Amino acid sequence: MAGTTARRSARGTAAYRCSECGWQTAKWVGRCGECQAWGSVGETGGVTARTSATTVERPAVPIGEVDLTRAAARPTGVAEFDRVLGGGLVPGAVVLVAGEPGIGKSTLLLDVAGRAARSGEHGERRVLYVSGEESAAQVRSRAERIEAMARTLYLASETDLGTLLGQVEQVEPELLVVDSVQTISSAEVEGSAGNVAQVREVAASLIQVAKARGIAVLLVGHVTKDGSIAGPRVLEHLVDVVVQFEGDRHSRLRLVRAVKNRYGPTDEVGCFDLSDVGIVGLTDPSGLFLSGRTASVPGTCVTVTLEGRRPLVTEVQALVTASSLATPRRATSGLDAARVNMVLAVLDKRAQAPIGGSDAYLSTVGGVRLTEPAADLAVTLALAGAITDRPLPGGTVAFGEVGLAGEVRPVTGAHRRLAEAARLGFTRAVVPPGVLGAGPVPEGISVLEVGTVAEAVGRALHDVPGR
């Protein structure tokens, strides 16, 4: 009887752990509650031993005596990438670069590796590029095509974590690029490469090496079908910087934005042009999003959107035609369909626009995607121009958020948007109320404040001068 009680007591204190992600539970279950893997939960048994104190090798120092030079960013040679990172790569920093397949992650990081290898303090520095998806010959072929060759750029094709760490020991690089973290596996961890436990082990080992040796590490990460970063969310918490690579596969424009950044801002965006000869940074990308025509056409309106802190001038085009269907069609490209439907409803209700029985098609120029509410007013005026077959006066831009009550609401960065529009030669801006009183207006541009959608449609299309 005593033996049975002892066994029950031991069984009651036993813990169960998932071999895939490390999730623990007090009782056995067939499916992991964290990673949803079947049959991965096993008994660990006993009580977890407590960690005892060890000898301190690097004692704590007063905060005023901490050396700030170790956290100084070093430029990579790619200005747009440095803009997103906050000036460059900090020694010991681990950066996760995520994006869809074929969008240009490997091309960008190989360009960064080549430029970094040629931009050291003494003319060059060691850079190690480890590819788990391509052979070294394939990487060299791309490097020659994009002119990323450098004498101190080392290439290796490895998928084993231990061998990768051995390469780091041998080369002693200042920058390490791993493409990708999901292709590297450790022999000490069960499971195939890419599963939760493997990704966690690989990331933890690389972070430890980066912090101990002062090596900047760039990790390429895959994404899932919904666009989120593949693997455990702990991967995003462990790294110092998370960079998202965005863009339409059928367009040459690529946007790089920081989702997380311990060393700089997260409101900066880098713009790149992906071509046959590689990826080139765009310091002034606004011209890509304009049609380039000189004559005014009904159904078009230019807006100024803010990508981070960078203003981008973008053209919105609308086409409204009579529908032969019982339910009129609504099609969008580069715009949020939900917001477009809302603007259509506001036009119908608040401005008495005859839109109910017509098909509506809306698109942006250049493949850019507008999700900012500030583009609502431009969408409204483009639709109004398409319905009335009346173009906006030349040189007009519009920005402002549209509410369900038909009001035009203020948006952030209004004067930054006006300055960009004036720089590109626009002479007239349709804006929400309060812009004129918030600060000086750039020279060469007149401002037309509108408070409602009906007022915006009436005044903008009839070319009523602003104050």
Automatic annotation (TrEMBL):
Instruction: Please give the Gene3D superfamilies that the UniProt record associates with this protein.
Output: 3.30.230.10, P-loop containing nucleotide triphosphate hydrolases (3.40.50.300)
Q: Which GO terms describe its biological process?
A: recombinational repair
Where does this chain carry the motif RadA KNRFG motif?
Answer: 260-264
Q: Which gene holds the coding sequence for this protein?
A: radA
What name is this protein filed under?
DNA repair protein RadA
Q: In UniProt terms, what function does this protein have? A: DNA-dependent ATPase involved in processing of recombination intermediates, plays a role in repairing DNA breaks. Stimulates the branch migration of RecA-mediated strand transfer reactions, allowing the 3' invading strand to extend heteroduplex DNA faster. Binds ssDNA in the presence of ADP but not other nucleotides, has ATPase activity that is stimulated by ssDNA and various branched DNA structures, but inhibited by SSB. Does not have RecA's homology-searching function. Plays a role in repairing double-strand DNA breaks, probably involving stabilizing or processing branched DNA or blocked replication forks.
Gene Ontology MF, one = hydrolase activity
Where are the annotated segments for Lon-protease-like? 359-467
Q: Is DNA damage a UniProt keyword of this protein?
A: yes
Taxonomy of the source species: Bacteria, Bacillati, Actinomycetota, Actinomycetes, Micrococcales
